[in-house]
């Protein structure tokens, strides 16, 4: 994992961005969780940020192509520069209205919790209509007791201090049953597993597969 993180970080310009990317790929439990899944094919990374996750899947040979979409133009510029010789493209767009390109696997990592419930529902409805073979969501589970309370407190503090996303307001986690319902109604088989790897957070990974 360290070698992969170093290889991806080296693609980015500036010590601050390289340090962020390296640390994120080394410490985030979603990285080994994704690498343990079957091959991804063409990936659509929604809310991709700096793009390090999709690039890691490409370099590791787990994805054949990546399309990333994010509203933050500065992050998209960094992702585009880092992906220079890889089959990846990054688009600045609002996910509430952006066209969702065809893909084999859609990644929705730490995105839904930042959206209001109606927007979450609308994005999931558009995703299942696009019918990728697999949809992978890391979601904040509001029903994990002390973990959920801790996660909400951390988010409030991060926003008060001007955290990375620079968003106002509070997160809006929906129960996992609400998130999985439209996936199962569309014919996906859904598994839910913890994705916190020793961290005191309530993150879970939903993997929705179509046969």
Provide structural commentary.
With 211 residues, this protein is of the alpha/beta class. The protein has 8 helices and 7 strands, in the order αααβαβαββαβααββ. Strands 3-2-1-4-5-7-6 form a 7-stranded mixed β-sheet, sandwiched between helices. α1 packs antiparallel against α2 and α1 packs across α4. The radius of gyration is 16 Å and the shape is globular.
The gist of it:
With 211 residues, this protein is an alpha/beta fold.
**Number of β-strand runs:** 7
Give the biggest beta sheet. Answer: 7 strands, mixed
> Given the helix and strand composition, which structural class is it?
alpha/beta
Q: Kindly report the oligomeric state of this protein.
A: single chain
Task: Give the fraction of residues assigned to helices.
Answer: 25-40%
Order of helices and strands: HHHEHEHEEHEHHEE
């Amino acid at each position: 994992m360290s070698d992969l993180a170093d290889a991806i970080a080296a693609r980015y310009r500036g010590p601050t961005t390289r340090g962020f990317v390296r640390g994120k790929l080394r410490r985030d439990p979603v990285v080994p969780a994704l690498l343990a899944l079957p091959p991804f094919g063409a990936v659509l990374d929604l809310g991709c940020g700096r793009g390090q996750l999709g690039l890691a899947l490409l370099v590791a040979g787990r994805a054949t192509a990546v399309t990333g979409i994010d509203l933050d133009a500065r992050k998209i510029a960094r992702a585009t520069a880092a992906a220079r010789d890889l089959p990846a493209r990054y688009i600045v767009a609002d996910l509430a209205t952006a066209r969702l390109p065809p893909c084999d696997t859609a990644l929705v990592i730490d995105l839904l919790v930042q959206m209001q419930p109606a927007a979450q529902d609308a994005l999931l409805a558009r995703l299942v209509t696009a019918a990728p073979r697999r949809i992978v969501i890391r979601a904040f589970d509001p029903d994990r007791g002390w973990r959920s309370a801790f996660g909400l407190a951390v988010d409030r503090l991060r926003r008060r201090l001007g955290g990375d996303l620079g968003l106002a307001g509070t997160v809006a986690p929906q129960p996992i049953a609400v998130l999985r319902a439209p996936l199962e109604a569309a014919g996906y088989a859904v598994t839910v597993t913890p994705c916190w790897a020793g961290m005191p957070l309530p993150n879970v990974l939903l993997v929705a597969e179509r046969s």
